[in-house]
């Protein structure tokens, strides 16, 4: 079973992750889990690229994404459930549905 778990690092998201982890033994098999975080794109992308080095912007997205994902990753590691992490930048609703379709995620 391919499971997509989008997260924003919020308490609600972490509570849902805890519930998912508790239900994994009932799934009957080892799920293929992907934690997905989508960082909203900075406003005025053209202005950002003109004003800042693209590497600086990329580093900002990476650092912010790691901060948001830290607790979810910690809980997944503690559970012993194997998982992958995917980070994207853009509109969260669009990026989540696009990933779910292209990666054929069932949950």
Describe the structure.
- With 107 residues, this protein is an alpha/beta fold.
- It contains 4 helices and 3 strands; from the N terminus they run E-H-E-H-H-E-H.
- Helix 1 packs across helix 3.
- The mean pLDDT is 90.
Quick overview:
This protein is an alpha/beta fold and 107 residues long. Helix content is 53%, strand content 19%. The protein has 4 helices and 3 strands.
Major sheet summary line: 3 strands, parallel
Low-confidence stretches: none
| Backbone structural class | alpha/beta
Q: What order do the helices and strands follow?
A: EHEHHEH
Strand proportion, as a percent range, falls in 15-25%
Shape: elongated
As laid out across the biggest beta sheet, the strand order is 1-2-3
Instruction: Give me the Rg, rounded.
Output: 15 Å
Indicate the percent of residues in helices.
Answer: 40-55%
Total number of helical segments? Answer: 4
Count every beta strand, where a strand is a DSSP E run of 2 or more residues.
3
